[in-house]
Amino acid sequence: MRRTIVAGNWKMNTTPAQGVELLEGVAAIKGEAKASVELIVGVPFTHICAVGKAAQGTGIAIAAQNCADHAKGAYTGEVSAEMLASMGVEYVILGHSERREYYGETSETLNKKIELVYQNGMSPIYCIGEKQQEREANRQNEVCRAQIQEVVFNLTPEQFEKLIIAYEPVWAIGTGLTATDDQAQEIHHYIRQVLAEKFGEQAASKCPILYGGSCKPSNAKGLFEKADVDGGLIGGASLNAQDFVGIAKAF
Ligand code: PEP
After folding, report:
1. Superfamily of 4-248 according to CATH
2. Per-residue pLDDT in tens (0 to 9) along the chain, 251 residues
3. Does residue 10 have a known ligand-binding role?
4. Active site at which residues (predicted)?
5. In testing the pocket of ligand 1, which one of 6, 10, 215 has its CB within 8 Å of the most ligand atoms?
């Protein structure tokens, strides 16, 4: 049995007070979803203290949306993995396409970040996915393979056990376009095969692979019914408690 996970990515939205309200809204109705569905919220750095406090005892875990690629030192404006872990953060979203595209995140920096996340006892939610032109050229498998080989293949088996992958086709993020259920299944299955090449069938069969890209309550069920789709990384719809829990209820 694989873990089932619905993770929110709040991106650069809400004030801390609004974030607390949102968290409380999710906590109030999360009982409508199966208890086996793990809920994670990826909050801005500024919210970790207040939202983390509000999440205590709710079973909702806190993720950060990024971390520094150095352990500490003269890196003005950066936030280290150690700082995040000390605040009770359990997960760090890494390699989101917005960070790859707008902040020049490369496999080289991601390798450093992922290592620091593990060193500090947290787990990465590693995002991969192809751009529209790459999908049009039918290059999605090649792109995802490279993003896995360049980063995930450097992990030890013990580190791999804690990894969560989010497949997020860039053309579906925030666009209202969603991969069809079959498109999602096809590539999730492929990703699992690539993982198996390095870590073996058994370890790969345990890795949660989340789908991300305009996922909402109305399309989550079809996606989550697919054999290799283990949940979602949710952007826009995670900013509304009813929608976020509505997606979790699709399991
Ligand atoms: C995301 O940014 O991770 C995401 C999936 O966004 P959205 O759900 O808004 O497409």
Report:
1. Aldolase class I (3.20.20.70)
2. 899 999 999 999 999 999 999 999 999 999 999 999 999 999 999 999 999 999 999 999 999 999 999 999 999 999 999 999 999 999 999 999 999 999 999 999 999 999 999 999 999 999 999 999 999 999 999 999 999 999 999 999 999 999 999 999 999 999 998 999 999 999 999 999 999 999 999 999 999 999 999 999 999 999 999 999 999 999 999 999 999 999 999 99
3. yes
4. 96, 168
5. 215
Domain range list for the chain: 4-248
Hey, what are 102's tokens?
A: 């707008």
Answer for the pair 84, 53: CB distance below 8 angstroms, yes or no.
no
Strand partners, 43: 64
- Measure CA 53 to chain center: 21
H helices of 87-216, in order, are 97-102, 107-119, 132-136, 140-149, 157-160, 181-199, 201-206
**Encoded tokens for 65:** 């949306």
Longest dimension (CA), the chain: 48
Query: Was 174 annotated as part of a binding site?
Result: yes
In this structure, the number of other CB atoms found within 10 A of the CB of residue 14 comes to: 19
